[in-house]
Amino acid sequence: MKKIILYPLILLTTAAIIIIACNKEISGRTDNIPALNPDNQDLDAGTWKPVLLSSPSEVPVAAPGATTSPDYIAQINEIKSWQADLTGEEQRIVKYWSAGAVLRWNEIMRELVAKHNLPPYQNEDGTYPAPNPNNPLAYPLFPFANPPYAARAYAYVAAAQYDALVATWYYKTLYNRAAPYHVDSSLKLLVPASTLPSYPSEDAALAGAAAEMMKLLFPGDQEFIQQKAEEQKRARIIAGANVRSDIEAGEALGKAIAQKFVARARGDRAGAAAGNPAIWKQMEDACIAKGEIPWKSLETPKRPPMLPLFGKVKPFLFDSLTVIALRPGPPPSTSGEEMKAETQEVFTQTSGASREDIRIIHFWSDGAGTYTPTGHWMSIACEDFLRKDFSEVRWARNIALLAMAEMDAAIVCWDTKYHYFNPRPCQMNPNIRSLTGVPNFPSYISGHSTFSGAAAKILGHIIPERAAAYDAMAEEAARSRFLGGLHYNKSDCGVGLVVGRNVGNYAIQRAKTDGAE
């Protein structure tokens, strides 16, 4: 049996973590979402700028067969045979997926991230085991979906889905094949009618792209992922929205586009982000050489730092030189009066936290067992997007913009953290009792603040009337890390917000030039 040594603080916060996870439950609200039925189907989306594809037509899709052919008539009859005896479960999956496939796959992603956002326990000898992508079901499960890993995962899935739908819209308008319920009026339609051509199927393209990317990112969950993809495709046939050839063409397109993102992911340097003891020592020594107190792990036994080379991962919205350009100047010196004052501010705050402070801390904690800060902002965005009646392709575009901003914010934030290697407040003053778990990486700058600044910026562009509300949420999210004793208020949280907003501006620049506005 493994010997488990935990800080009393971690034990005290376990109940809070469980409550937080329950408060962010991703399965209850979803059953009551109405079917996606936008007024504007964005028929010009085939001209929008993809993320990775050189053009929407880069992956070829063959012309469909005629709707008068015997093969097509057989496909119509397949729908009728399904609809002749629908079970309750079949009606359920139609209703579930009709709410919007981008939304549903984002919820599924959040579920997988929360499942895998669990740091491993230590070995008997005080070392820590590392998840192995080649043996993902062995302990500890692969991946450990910590905030940087999760931000990258959300981005790859969202960007692949967006490119898949831009290509799908291109071929829809090129071939203009009518949906089966327009071809045969005797078919029942179990989802809202649409003016969109049905070939290739947008749902199948989304399923193909999402499943391929998620199998790479969560290799131990392939059966679950494939089950969801098959369910989605079946729902569209049962609903009378697509014939079999629509589905097959869409899935093949989505899978082919996903493979381009898989190739990018395999070469984006994330696989080397954990570093090694020699690199960790170099970072510590560089900090000491500047005359500063270096960050150290506050866990017992000492845990290796979280992904210290994640700052070298290839971003989506800009190049790696821009990551360095976005890096803020240094934090206050650990031997100076400014640092002493900021540390005292944290001590004073945590010594007298109010009930409202505790609420804010817990709401934004997003620690172990949750879908991380990026997932929290995804949840906020999805709730607001539901009220806007966006088309499926616009959903994909907006989620991709948010996800890419969050991944790139993580890259810039982690570059900053390990460049300066700044200690946490409770390292500078052991009398500080943090009110939630202490993350295992340097303090400057705050990850929550950086994620939130980026998210608020791009969401405020997408839904301008909510910009002030998003800014207020970001300010509260950033402040929550100071209130909990994890970060210095001015340097970590304040600077993190600024850096995040700067990253968000790059997402806005892309939004203004992608052809969707």
From TrEMBL:
Organism: Chitinophaga rhizophila
Family annotation (PANTHER family): PEROXIDASE-RELATED, PHOSPHATIDIC ACID PHOSPHATASE TYPE 2_HALOPEROXIDASE DOMAIN-CONTAINING PROTEIN
Pfam families associated with the record: PAP2 (PF01569)
InterPro entries: Br/Cl_peroxidase_C (IPR016119), PAP2/HPO (IPR000326), PAP2/HPO_sf (IPR036938), V-haloperoxidase (IPR052559)
Residue span, Phosphatidic acid phosphatase type 2/haloperoxidase domain: 409-505
Protein's name in the database: Phosphatase PAP2 family protein
